[in-house]
Amino acid sequence: MTNKFLLPLLSAPLMLAACGSGGDGSPTAGQYKQTVEITELDFPGMSEDVKKRTITQMEQAAGGGTGGLFCMQGDDNGAQWKEAAKQMSGALGGQCETTKDEGSATSIDLEMTCKGTGKGDINIKMSGQANPEGYDSSMAFDIKDPASGETAKLAMNIGAQRQGDCPG
After folding, report:
1. Is the CB of residue 118 less than 8 Å from the CB of residue 141?
2. Quick one: which of 145, 153, 90 has its CA closest to 124?
3. Which residues, including other chains, have CB under 8 Å from residue 60's CB and lie 6 or more apart?
4. Which residues form the signal peptide (predicted)?
5. Bigger pLDDT: 23 vs 35
6. Angle at Cα 17 formed by Cα 15 and Cα 21, nearest 5°?
7. Fewer CB within 10 Å, N or C, the chain?
8. Strand, coil or helix: 50
9. Closest Cα to residue 53, out of 7, 118, 122?
10. Which secondary-structure segment (H or E) carries 87?
11. In angstroms, how far is the first alpha carbon of the chain from the final one?
12. What is the Cα–Cα distance from 147 to 48, expressed in whole angstroms?
């Protein structure tokens, strides 16, 4: 599995940025700075050197060339979590099914299984908590290669902190 496969998985944290504002404790409208920390990267046959380089590249790519800055707006009462999962399903391909959804407007506790993707079957776990000034969440991917039967793992922490109002 290559960076061409791993880097699209980083679009998921950016999808979480669709968070809305409201009196429910979710992030207020404004400009946020996102951080992504890869906490696990375990792919069969990946050397320690390649692993370190890949983690660095993935964490840098998460900023999207914007330094991690993005704007959030609107009151969605928790729809951001559902939309993130839906968009991630589309990005992964295959047939995705939500197997657990116990989140709320300000929290995510979601598990999905995507079968038949280009890289095999993928189990995804997402958890996190939002507050008026940002969010903290984690995502974990278990990817089973259909050819070898081996499982690869990727996990990350994703956070965002409000920086102020959106520009102009």
Report:
1. no
2. 153
3. none
4. 1-17
5. 35
6. 135
7. C
8. helix
9. 7
10. helix 79-92
11. 41
12. 23
Hey, which residues does 81 pair with through a beta bridge? none
Measured in residues, the chain has a length of 168
The beta strands (E) that lie in 54-102 are given as: 69-72, 95-101
**pLDDT of 98-145, one tens digit each?**
899 888 778 888 898 888 887 788 898 989 888 888 889 899 999 888
- Strands 95-101, 30-42: parallel, antiparallel or unpaired by DSSP? unpaired
What are the residues whose beta carbons fall under 8 Å from the beta carbon of 36, sequence distance 6 or more? 10, 13, 58, 59, 62, 63, 68, 156, 157, 158
pLDDT tens profile 30-42 = 888 888 889 999 9
Query: What residues form DSSP beta bridges with 37?
Result: 157
Residue in the block written with tokens 């669709």:
18
User: Locate tokens 């990005």: which residue?
Assistant: 91
